[in-house]
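Internal tracking record. Fields below are filled automatically when a chain is submitted to the structure queue. Please do not edit lines marked as system-generated. If the sequence contains nonstandard residues, flag them in the REMARKS field before resubmitting.
Queue: standard
Priority: normal
Entity type: single polypeptide chain
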Amino acid sequence: MNIRFKVIIGAVIIGLVLISCKTKLEEKPLFEILEEKHTGISFSNNLTTTLEKNIFNYLYFYNGGGIGAGDFNNDGLIDLFFSGNQVASELYLNRGNMKFENVTSTSNIAYDSTWCTGVSVVDINNDGMLDIYVSTVSQIIGLDGQNKFYICKQIDEKGIPHYEDEAVKMGFDSSGYGTQSAFFDYDMDGDLDMFQLNHSTHKNNTFGQRKSFVNTVNKLSGDRMYRNDNGQFTDVSGIVGINRSSIGYGLGIVVCDINMDGFPDLYIGNDFHENDYYYVNNGNGTFTERLTEQMGHTSRFSMGVDAGDINNDGFPDIVSLDMQPEDPFILKKSEGEDAMDIFNFKLDYGYNHQYAQNALQLNNRNGTFTEIAAYAGIHATDWSWASLFTDFDNDGWKDLFITNGIPKRMNDIDYINFVSQNDVQYKISMDRMEEKDLELINKIPEIKLYNKFFINGGDLQFIDIEKRIKNNKISYSNGAVTADLDNDGDIDIVSNNINDKAFIYENKTCENNTCIKSSIKIQLKGPEKNINALGSKVVIFSKDTIKTYEKFPVRGFLSSFEAPLIVASEGWQTADSIVLIWPDNTYQKIEKTLKTEIKLTYKLRLPLFNYSSLLKNKVKNVLLEDMTAETGLKSVHKENPFVEFNREPLIPHAVSNEGPAIAVGDVNGDNLEDIYFGNAKWKESELWLQKPNGTFSLSAQLSISSDSTYEDVDAAFADLNNDGYKDLVVASGGNEYANKSEYQLSRVYLNDGKGNFNKKQDALKGIYLTASCILPNDFNGDGFIDLFIGSRAVPWKYGEIPSSYFLINDGKGNFTDVTDQCTVDKGKLGFVTGGQWEDMDGDGFSDLILSLEWGQVTILLNKKGSFDKIGIGKEKGWWNFVQVLDVDNDGDKDILAGNLGLNSRLKASDDQPVTMYYDDFDQNDTKEQVLTYFLKGKEVPFANIMELHKQIPSLKKTFLKAKDFAGASVKELFPKIALGKTTKFQANYFSSCIFLNDGKLNFKTVALPSRAQFSTIRTLVTSDFNKDGLPDFLIGGNYYENNVQLGRYDGDYCSVLINQGKGLFDFTPHNGLHIKGQIRKLAPIMIGKKLNFLVGRNNEPISAIQCSSK
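SYSTEM-GENERATED OUTPUT FOLLOWS
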């Protein structure tokens, strides 16, 4: 055996050993639930339904209790306080080795019937002993009392803390619907103030025009801000800029410097119709609510919230929890989103776009956020409460823990139908329930669930590790905290449960004084009025990351934990620098050390931290500047009101708002590029002529203005009659008109040479379609510009393949349909969304490259006027457009294709495709669409039972109840239809990507980077932004007109992708302008001597922007 062979065998053996070790490590339990017999914790938040106290009388009867964690007796171990609703709250002291002692009775914690909710742990008087603030519910269902502030007076010789309730004495004599309090220095005067989060109750007067609640105050449910005035607290709610109305269904709160400017901000999660609140601290003792301005959409029934930097870019991201089930059976028997008319009604009333799924707001570090929960894999965790970002495994990346479950699922469809009976509703609404009627509550379905553990997998995606929880149990868990309970260097987790003992999840990363990955404990002693240094930050600067750890105790749901910061050792020694920012924004460097514990004390006269250092990037930024005002362009696209779902309720998205159209060209021979801007139905399209000074003037065009009933979706300038002047062709879309309406005809306007356009009647006679694109090209080589018109859909019949058209020009602008002679499928090419002419095979004839919905990107190879169809790869997607260019500078033509993206509830793969069945399912001579996808390995219909019942009434005969519908397979739902023979469309790939050409029309698929997958991509332009000789991309996307269950795709702000070669691209942050909205067209244009880009957005003004490198 030669040496080389021995080396190879040795390498293989080592590799197998490493793989084996890695597999065992991944399978090793990461957490274990410890039993009461080990911990001594017997607290159970038991709830009992009575005639007076029940979920009908108090909507939040099952919201549960919270937890406070901190070293209450200063022995170096983290103790636990549990709040109870109908049971007394309890205090447990940590006696070491995960054993706890109940000392409630000797600590003077009240044993009473007060309904306690949120817990805040704080040393409010800075005496070195932790105090406990407890929010309560009163003045409803017979509850009385007020919030409690347990001030620690002493710790006796047995190590037991003793408390006195001084809430009234200190100015906290509030009562009402308390959720949670949070202590922080909002006005930066050095001491700790307090925000009291309250919640509304579901009364009829809590819904109405949102503006009618502005500047109103509700004493029971309105939130409050208390300023610390030398130990006395003053209610300053009316002057700090917070909402205090009756529609504040506040369930979640987190304090965090979200925009990293040195001032603590607030994020509030509100249940039901009210918007969440993102309060940005102005730095002058006031807040401005900026959620609608900075976020596209949020969760709808927002419960627990948290903030933490999940991608180590230096800025906190935000998670809010909702109640969308991940289990297909539970999902299909649960009520989900509002019907579209109700959804739009709420929007008209001033409420935000909200969807009943978890939301993960990725901080873009520029005053905008992108919601990516579906991309991250955490959008559906069922009825979820506490969300906590923490590092489970000490790898330096924040993981996510979520508590789950509710004893009574009020959104069960069958139960809703049952209680909607008139006699039942009367008793509930009139408060006339009798003892026998409590059986109504017993009928509400109950489902216990596992709490969720998600490991941060990198690239902004999380991995469910449910199988790595030893002794795992289902529960109804609410409040939760994370803390190192056994001082072994890893984070343990505690949850407060309804009708069950509290869970203690022991972290197994560190055992027997050995850690798989270790951590560093940082203990802080702050200034005299903030001794525990709330608001401090540890920032670790490394080559590619900026890790931040911020100290604010209140997080998750109803809970808080005052404890040292636990920082992963991973990357500590190799960091470029490590700094501690104190609450007053002064800072000091932290020296690298091998110690596992660091103690730091605040000092006066430290330098101020420069927060702009968090924005330094290793790559050049691209600056986008809005030049619209300078150009004088004032065109606005105005979409006409047309709800396509009223016509075809089961389609996944509308195809009726594809505009605007943009065409650029010199129409009057002055060597300046002009603009055609095509509008929607009933809005005049416009021609803007460029002047030598770089401004534009609107040109009166009677022929164009007269055609305002058409809906323009695409346009191009081309010389159609060979007179040397650029004529105009316009594609008519909208999918509103049918039956050979004249408004289904695309149009031709001839140019007189001076920029005056006149419609050529009957130029496209008989070509009726909902067009998506109109592409001029001399495809038969006779010297005259011909046309291809792509068809998007058949009106009223989404699922029927439309006809696209090849039209030959006679040289005078008259066109003849030659489609049947050009293609074997006689124009039935698929659902065409866009295309481009380009010579792909080098034979001198332009080929046609098409993007198709429910199909492959397709090349029609031009064989001297006839076409051979080639599908690229096996990737069938919802392709939106194609752009042909040489991406990698190898001399051949590659194809970039925009797709749905990966930030959607719909996930597609070869073995689990998204499918649309198109057939007459109820045999009434009208075909319906049934969209299916896979959940937990099972193919399920995307539409809920109400949507299917409405469109396919025959389903009611066999699947009247939601539980039967939820348990049925797709085949069982439609037994009379042979699904194998029905018309079926599938998609197995949703990434936007590049198809790299090897020069022989063999293509390699390379997905665009993750940041380009957060929304659907609809258009792009190319330019060499960093001057390295490779084409870079400016991409535009977003799409709003989806089925409500899908939500809207709004995650793109006009992104920049920098070409790294070989088909690889990096997402590059850009500064300056951030373009919101549905970008349909990006078009390059020379304005003066500078390259600009036109931005055409649906239902928004046209913009002109310039891009430059910084």
